[in-house]
Specification:
Rossmann fold; 16 strands
Length: 383
């Protein structure tokens, strides 16, 4: 038995995760409304490939979460809100601070303000897409001192990065720390403006929902990849950026020493995690990690991607770095499994195959990585 749902609003639903979630919801017989501005940075100056929005099964509103009239129209007769709408990307957030705050924090505040002042509201649950970035550098242990004591290092300073001091060290003995899976009970230590806005979203949703008697579920997503992700945005999505360069026969530039790690989770698993949260029968009121729980180095992922395209490995470790980037982070998924009964199941090999097969059907986009990096360097956010 599942939570009885009427109409579901997905903010930012025309994007990458929104597409897959919409298909999952429709397959489950649910009614979907989407609010999305079709941002040029994500969808291109002339949005293409969005025919699915107009298939007669979806109610689509082109609008923004920063617009009160748009949000009011979108919220009418809605039972569940899946709040995906956000500006994403660490690097760009460090110099477009107002835009990230206006959309991520302001849009969430406006959504909750409308609900708080609507005596006829039907919304019973809010499901928020948050980010593993809120943990900052994540959790570590020192195997030399006491491997049962979890440590949470500060974000790496510009001085450390400039000296190529990539790894965190134990403050007691000076040996390199070992990363361990982050738990939802670990402290939040955002290291970028983007991360700070996601954490602010979490607090807003948690506090307002509790006050209003609305159930909530907050999903902290690891590095999401897969079919349908934007190939036009040079500020986020390492696999999108690298896939374009592989197809163009270009070198894949890898920051730091290439041994930084991420937890890559396929978008279909992420969509199914959201589906489980939307349809869960009973109160959720929890924050949950969504990842594979496996750490993969950036060098390894670049190699896997090249293999998936049948391309020669053209990898170059550059020792370049971006302020606000974290070194390691991967998820402890126990709470997701225990509460929602869901576990991601698409492993990296299968996910890479699916992603590469889809990319091969798309036009080869312009490579804008050098442009994005030059912008960061000009602002002294990259070295």
């Amino acid at each position: 038995m599942t939570f009885k749902v009427g109409k579901i609003l997905i903010t930012g639903g025309a994007g990458f995760i929104g597409f897959h979630l919409t298909q999952a919801l429709l397959a489950a017989g649910q009614s979907v409304r989407i609010l999305d501005p079709l941002s040029p940075q994500v969808h291109g100056s002339v949005p293409v490939g969005l025919e699915w929005l107009h298939n007669g099964q979806i109610e689509f509103i082109r609008g923004s979460v920063t617009s009160e009239p748009d949000l009011r129209a979108a919220l009418k007769e809605v039972d569940v809100v899946v709040h995906l709408a956000a500006e994403t990307g660490t690097g760009q957030s460090m110099y477009e601070i107002k835009r990230y705050n206006d959309v991520n924090v302001g849009g969430t505040a406006l959504l909750l303000d409308i609900l708080a002042n609507d005596s006829t509201r039907a919304v019973k649950r809010i499901v928020l897409a948050s980010s593993r970035s809120i943990y900052g550098e994540g959790a570590y242990v020192c195997q030399n001192c006491a491997d049962e004591i979890r440590q949470f290092p500060d974000c790496r300073s510009a001085k450390q990065l400039a000296a190529h001091q990539w790894e965190h060290v134990c403050t007691a003995c000076g040996t390199c720390l070992t990363p361990v899976p982050t738990r939802e009970t670990d402290p939040a230590r955002p290291a970028s403006i983007y991360a700070a806005t996601k954490y602010a979203q979490e607090d807003l949703v948690r506090i307002a929902s509790t006050s209003l008697g609305i159930d909530y579920a907050i999903l902290r997503l690891q590095n999401v990849y897969g079919e349908g992700q934007s190939l036009n945005n040079p500020y986020t999505g390492i696999l999108s950026i690298f896939s374009t360069r592989v197809r163009r026969g270009q070198v894949l530039p890898i920051f730091e020493d290439g041994l930084e790690t991420r937890d890559f989770v396929h978008v279909r698993d992420v969509a199914n995690a959201f589906l489980a949260a939307v349809l869960f029968d009973g109160a959720v009121n929890q924050t949950m990690n969504v990842g594979m729980g496996v750490k993969t180095t950036v060098t390894e992922i670049a190699g896997h991607l090249s293999d998936a395209f049948g391309a020669t490995h053209k990898l170059k470790t550059t020792s370049e770095y971006r302020l606000g980037d974290i070194r390691h982070n991967f998820a402890d998924n126990a709470r997701l499994k225990n509460i929602l009964g869901f576990e991601p199941c698409i492993d990296l090999a299968e996910g890479m195959r699916l992603f590469a097969a889809w990319v091969g059907t798309q036009d080869v986009p312009d490579d804008r990585l050098d442009f994005a990096n030059a912008e960061l360097k000009a602002r002294k956010l990259m070295g």
